[in-house]
Amino acid sequence: MLERILHTYASSVEGNSSFSSGGSPKNQSRSDDTVLGPRYHSHVRIFIIVIMIAFSTAGNSVVCWKLLTRRRRRCLSKAQVLFLNLAVADLLVTLVTMTSQMVWEIMGRIWVAGDAFCRMFKVLQTFALASSTYVIVSIALDRHSAIVSPLAKCPGPWKLATAAWVAALMPSLPNIYVFRLIKTLRMTVLVFGAFIVTNVPYMVQEMVLAFSGSSGALSSSIVALFGVISASNSAINPYIYILFHTRK
Question: Where in the cell is it found (predicted)?
Fold first, then answer.
């Protein structure tokens, strides 16, 4: 989501620049290549992320400080408990999702930390975003209950907050396995593709021989070649497996 917003903003900057500057289309295109290239867009995204990190950290830290110091004096209300959890969730988004996105942009969108850290960061990023969303949902449910059924007994604020944090794990934990599933899917597609390439000619050949009623319908050299190609599938499959399981 954050990446799509930044990409849209960078595209709009490029579009506005083309209208505001003069010159012929050819000169304009050359100017865009030198001024509004990939590095320019990267700098725009990094600048926006830094601003969002600063504002989010400052604002959510103030909210947490005010609510926690207030709690020392007296108990927090139900709404204050939920908003405290929302501030913590938003800080998590800032420190995990935004910060990791900024580092990724600075490094040219190249991941160098390996597969294990990639999965860990994806789990944390998804958990942070989901926790913020689900805490907002719990606030909406609490306010709906207070307005529609003010006298009805409803779950306490800490139970609602706990449910939101636990629910955030559901879309997060599958990220541990999603990359493994993608790798397995690619390997399966490649194995199936190798089977098609090596066996379809042999199957077509056998159908031609069966329906023609004559063994001389095809050259003996072609028959022998297609037979060898079909058998080669068994030699190709193990190397496909080795290829996918030796990648870092």
Answer: Cell membrane
Q: What does each C-alpha distance from 147 to 150, 190, 202 come to in angstroms?
A: 6, 57, 72
Q: Using the 8-state DSSP alphabet, how is residue 75 labeled? A: P
Domain ranges of the chain: 40-172, 191-246
- Which letter does DSSP use for residue 189 in this model? H
CA atoms within 13 A on the CB side of 49: 28
Quote the pTM value: 0.61
DSSP states of 77-136:
PHHHHHHHHHHHHHHHIIIIIIHHHHHHHHTTS---SHHHHHHHHHHHHHHHHHHHHHHH
The two structure tokens encoding residue 92: 């998590």
Topology adopted by domain 40-172: Rhopdopsin 7-helix transmembrane proteins (1.20.1070)
**Would you state the structure tokens that stand for residue 204, as one six-digit string?**
């077509």
Token code pair at residue 42: 């990267």
Q: What is the pLDDT of residues 28-80, one digit of tens each?
A: 444 444 444 455 577 888 888 899 899 899 999 988 888 888 766 567 788 88
Considering Cα of 22, then 25, then 27, then 32, what sign does the dihedral take?
positive
Give residue for tokens 């830094």: 50
147 C-beta neighbours (distance < 10 Å), count: 8
Cα–Cα separations (whole angstroms), residue 237 to 180, 189, 190, 247, 248: 19, 12, 9, 16, 20
Structure tokens at 135: 């805490």
